[in-house]
Amino acid sequence: MYLPSDAPHAVPLLPQLENAVSFDYLYHVNGTISIFWADVTLDTIFRVEVNGKTASTPRPIVSTGLSTVEGIAVDWISEAAKIDGSMRTTVVKGEIHNPRDIVVDPR
Predict the structure, then answer these.
(1) What is the C-alpha separation between 97 and 83, in angstroms, rounded?
(2) In 3D, which of 20, 59, 60 has the Cα closest to residue 40?
(3) 44 lies in which domain range?
């Protein structure tokens, strides 16, 4: 994963990613960015905090109750889960087989 920098080349941010399939981010008013991604091999959703060109150590925020996560979306309006992974809420339930992605509509 790379973020643009003021240098002419991209800066590797998380070079250890191997099975990340879906990304989303949350921009904070203080200028930091929370980046979220799903790892299909580990069935885990991770978060990292980016401040400028530095990134924190990736942390798993959801690692139980998942099965082949292929799409994520940050719900920055109503927070179906807190950004630390707590307070999770089921947003769709029923006869849905192998959903591939999800999108947040803030309207």
Answers:
(1) 26
(2) 20
(3) 1-90
